[in-house]
């Protein structure tokens, strides 16, 4: 039993970290009333920047490279998401359309520049992050070996960020304003909250977190960038946002659960009982469950009221 | 004022395309390529000789159908982002019928094409039903359905249609849309009869929307659900119907690929992108059957022509993806283009 847990839990944490980060971004954006189908594209951008930064500066920064790379990816992700913010907040564009365009644009730019700079469709491999033992915590009997041995530190960064996101959204006045803007922008505006500014900030936060998620995915799981580095992780993160009912900790839980489904389809063959489940069921589980959650089979999931509606001052 | 608006809604797609192409030229310039060479290569790649023209038309075919799939749902106020999944299941069903049934062509081919349409329709039915009965947002459900389609289809190809192979056998001639006549005409490109089906589908959509009661009701529901309900229309029925027909169009697009272009189906590592491109096509075509055909031609030309850009001018093909994405942004942000045009007009007076 402990052996099984020791093989599953690190893999779950490993697969869910990028999902948690990106899903948190989705929570911020959607809570402010901006639908973000573009999470996939933000992850692509993050993965691209993370890998290119690592390839370029590996010799300069040594072992610090991956940390600086995800930082760079977060910054570029934030800047890139401004396009979505401008289109959907200022220009009243259909937010789903703008998100779809973000996805196409990110992949286009990423692969275009990869070919331009490296002369081929995919980059070389980078070292990325390594598994490490978390000091002190890994010494704890029983729990230590399962949760803290040979693990990627980024997984814990993601979990800690989920709690920070929860604190910001639910315990600060900034969070209250952000949620108000997503529920009833006109009321928020009447109370002196700058709806446009809040939405811009929320979308940019989602860009930062999406970039972070994409780069963590690239630097822990695939180690290079090509057109097939990010295929659907952003949409899975979007599913986690909804399955987690637009709540940061709920999204984290959903992302961990989806990570479990993914890792079971990989390590499951070694575990009795699970090896009898055809892999396809584990692959589609996150998506089927999300539909069921929305259909109200697993509790009700209601979107923020003003989600997807551009705010036009003075209109009712 | 109305004629003015009509003029504007024609002008905006044109301006967006021009802006997109200019942006593409600027990007080429900044990355050290000659934009004129780049666009000339693109032109050659799309219209250079009979073969490339055949391939261009071949590429336009499914784009018309996925464009219709998105546009049709949009007329009822629904966003069908699930054309992607509907294409995949349509492709699978068409090839499946192609392989499993043994019949003369006059029965076999229509049956296989129809199977594709029906499978796509079923894939559209689920989000339609959930939207109509429980009010679940169709965007999310259709996205999820895309992935379910992808994984299930791959599994069926591996375990049901073949014995752990990555692609099926070719379909027999009786189910094939390919035409020797069209192929010899175009130096053996993969051009097939599907283009006729696609154009016919566009005509069907135009007729259905503009000339029938069903179309009137679908549009009414798209404009105002409450008013439609008050007028005695069955809103849920119309929502479901719209998604089923939309899914059917996308399923046909899959059948075109399965029965025409490739003649089989392979395990896919990712999406075909036909469905996502369909969103771009529908948007640029203003959700109108005729506009969709024009937009599909434009995007088909850009995508096919892109194939020539790396050899002809050294430009990566992805430039075209960037251009298309930008065109979508410009159309989606038409609010600002409209504003600028009106501003200029005022100052001109």
From TrEMBL, chain A:
<dbReference type="GO" id="GO:0005886">
    <property type="term" value="C:plasma membrane"/>
</dbReference>
<feature type="transmembrane region" description="Helical">
    <location>
        <begin position="6"/>
        <end position="27"/>
    </location>
</feature>
<dbReference type="GO" id="GO:0022857">
    <property type="term" value="F:transmembrane transporter activity"/>
</dbReference>
<feature type="transmembrane region" description="Helical">
    <location>
        <begin position="96"/>
        <end position="114"/>
    </location>
</feature>
<dbReference type="Pfam" id="PF02653">
    <property type="entry name" value="BPD_transp_2"/>
</dbReference>
<feature type="transmembrane region" description="Helical">
    <location>
        <begin position="225"/>
        <end position="243"/>
    </location>
</feature>
<keyword id="KW-0472">Membrane</keyword>
<dbReference type="InterPro" id="IPR001851">
    <property type="entry name" value="ABC_transp_permease"/>
</dbReference>
<feature type="transmembrane region" description="Helical">
    <location>
        <begin position="151"/>
        <end position="170"/>
    </location>
</feature>
<protein>
    <submittedName>
        <fullName>Nucleoside ABC transporter membrane protein</fullName>
    </submittedName>
</protein>
<feature type="transmembrane region" description="Helical">
    <location>
        <begin position="200"/>
        <end position="219"/>
    </location>
</feature>
<feature type="transmembrane region" description="Helical">
    <location>
        <begin position="67"/>
        <end position="89"/>
    </location>
</feature>
<keyword id="KW-1133">Transmembrane helix</keyword>
<feature type="transmembrane region" description="Helical">
    <location>
        <begin position="280"/>
        <end position="298"/>
    </location>
</feature>
<feature type="transmembrane region" description="Helical">
    <location>
        <begin position="255"/>
        <end position="274"/>
    </location>
</feature>
<feature type="transmembrane region" description="Helical">
    <location>
        <begin position="34"/>
        <end position="55"/>
    </location>
</feature>
<keyword id="KW-0812">Transmembrane</keyword>
<keyword id="KW-1003">Cell membrane</keyword>
From TrEMBL, chain B:
<protein>
    <submittedName>
        <fullName>Nucleoside ABC transporter membrane protein</fullName>
    </submittedName>
</protein>
<feature type="transmembrane region" description="Helical">
    <location>
        <begin position="105"/>
        <end position="126"/>
    </location>
</feature>
<feature type="transmembrane region" description="Helical">
    <location>
        <begin position="81"/>
        <end position="99"/>
    </location>
</feature>
<feature type="transmembrane region" description="Helical">
    <location>
        <begin position="322"/>
        <end position="341"/>
    </location>
</feature>
<keyword id="KW-1003">Cell membrane</keyword>
<dbReference type="Pfam" id="PF02653">
    <property type="entry name" value="BPD_transp_2"/>
</dbReference>
<keyword id="KW-0812">Transmembrane</keyword>
<dbReference type="GO" id="GO:0005886">
    <property type="term" value="C:plasma membrane"/>
</dbReference>
<keyword id="KW-0472">Membrane</keyword>
<feature type="transmembrane region" description="Helical">
    <location>
        <begin position="7"/>
        <end position="36"/>
    </location>
</feature>
<dbReference type="GO" id="GO:0022857">
    <property type="term" value="F:transmembrane transporter activity"/>
</dbReference>
<feature type="transmembrane region" description="Helical">
    <location>
        <begin position="239"/>
        <end position="262"/>
    </location>
</feature>
<keyword id="KW-1133">Transmembrane helix</keyword>
<dbReference type="InterPro" id="IPR001851">
    <property type="entry name" value="ABC_transp_permease"/>
</dbReference>
<feature type="transmembrane region" description="Helical">
    <location>
        <begin position="274"/>
        <end position="302"/>
    </location>
</feature>
<feature type="transmembrane region" description="Helical">
    <location>
        <begin position="191"/>
        <end position="209"/>
    </location>
</feature>
């Amino acid at each position: 039993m402990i052996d099984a847990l020791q093989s599953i839990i690190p893999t779950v944490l490993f697969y869910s970290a990028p999902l948690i980060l990106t899903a948190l971004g989705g929570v911020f954006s959607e809570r402010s009333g901006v639908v973000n189908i573009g999470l996939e594209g933000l992850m692509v951008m993050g993965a691209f920047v993370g890998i290119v930064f690592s390839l370029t500066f590996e010799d300069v920064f040594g072992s610090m490279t991956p940390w600086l790379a995800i930082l760079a990816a977060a910054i570029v992700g934030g800047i890139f998401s401004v396009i979505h913010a401008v289109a959907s907040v200022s220009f009243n564009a259909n937010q789903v359309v703008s998100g779809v365009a973000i996805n196409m644009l990110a992949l286009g730019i990423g692969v275009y520049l990869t070919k331009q700079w490296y002369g081929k469709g995919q980059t070389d491999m980078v070292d990325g992050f390594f598994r490490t033992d978390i000091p002190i915590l890994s010494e704890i009997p029983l729990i230590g070996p399962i949760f803290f041995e040979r693990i990627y530190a980024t997984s814990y960064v993601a979990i800690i960020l989920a709690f920070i996101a929860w604190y910001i959204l639910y315990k600060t006045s900034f969070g209250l304003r952000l949620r108000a803007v997503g529920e009833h922008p006109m009321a928020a505006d009447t109370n002196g909250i700058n709806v446009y500014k809040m939405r811009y900030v929320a979308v940019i936060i989602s860009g930062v977190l999406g970039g972070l998620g994409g780069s963590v995915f690239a630097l822990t799981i695939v180690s290079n960038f090509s057109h097939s580095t990010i295929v659907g992780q952003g949409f899975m993160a979007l599913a986690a946002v909804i399955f987690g009912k637009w709540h940061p900790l709920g999204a984290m839980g959903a992302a961990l659960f989806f990570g479990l489904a993914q890792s079971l389809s990989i390590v499951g063959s070694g575990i009795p009982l699970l090896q009898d489940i055809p892999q396809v069921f584990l692959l589609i589980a996150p998506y089927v469950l999300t539909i069921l959650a929305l259909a109200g089979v697993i509790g009700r999931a209601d979107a923020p009221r003003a989600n997807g509606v551009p705010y036009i001052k003075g209109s009712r | 004022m109305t004629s003015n608006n009509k003029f504007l809604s024609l002008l905006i797609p044109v301006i967006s395309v021009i802006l997109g192409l200019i942006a593409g030229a600027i990007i080429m310039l900044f990355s050290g390529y000659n934009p004129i060479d780049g666009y000339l290569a693109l032109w050659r790649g799309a219209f250079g000789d009979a073969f490339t023209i055949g391939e261009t038309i071949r590429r336009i075919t499914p784009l018309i159908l996925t464009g219709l799939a998105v546009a049709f749902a949009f007329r009822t106020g629904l966003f069908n982002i699930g054309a992607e999944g509907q294409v995949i299941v349509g492709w699978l069903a068409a090839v499946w019928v192609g392989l499993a049934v043994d019949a003369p062509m006059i029965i076999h081919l229509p049956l296989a094409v129809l199977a594709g349409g029906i499978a796509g329709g079923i894939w559209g039915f689920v989000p339609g039903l959930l939207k109509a009965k429980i009010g679940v947002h169709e965007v999310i459900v259709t996205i999820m359905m895309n992935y379910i389609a992808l994984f299930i289809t791959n599994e069926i190809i591996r375990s049901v249609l073949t014995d752990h192979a990555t692609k099926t056998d070719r379909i027999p001639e009786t189910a094939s849309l390919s035409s020797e006549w069209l192929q010899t005409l175009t130096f053996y490109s993969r051009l097939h009869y599907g283009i006729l089906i696609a154009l016919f589908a566009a005509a069907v959509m135009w007729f259905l929307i503009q000339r029938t009661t069903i179309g009137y009701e679908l549009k009414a529901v798209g404009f105002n659900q409450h008013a439609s309900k008050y007028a005695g229309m069955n809103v849920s029925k119309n929502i479901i119907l719209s998604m089923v027909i939309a899914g059917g169009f996308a399923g046909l697009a899959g059948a075109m690929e399965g029965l025409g272009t490739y003649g089989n189906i392979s395990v896919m590592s990712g999406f075909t992108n036909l469905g996502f491109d369909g969103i771009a096509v529908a948007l640029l075509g203003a959700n109108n059957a005729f506009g969709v055909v024009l937009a599909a031609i434009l995007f088909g030309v850009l995508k096919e022509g892109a194939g020539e850009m790396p050899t002809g001018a050294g430009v990566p093909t992805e430039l075209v993806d960037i251009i298309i994405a930008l065109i979508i942004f410009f159309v989606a942000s038409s609010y600002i283009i409209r504003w600028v045009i009106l501003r200029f007009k005022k100052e001109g007076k």
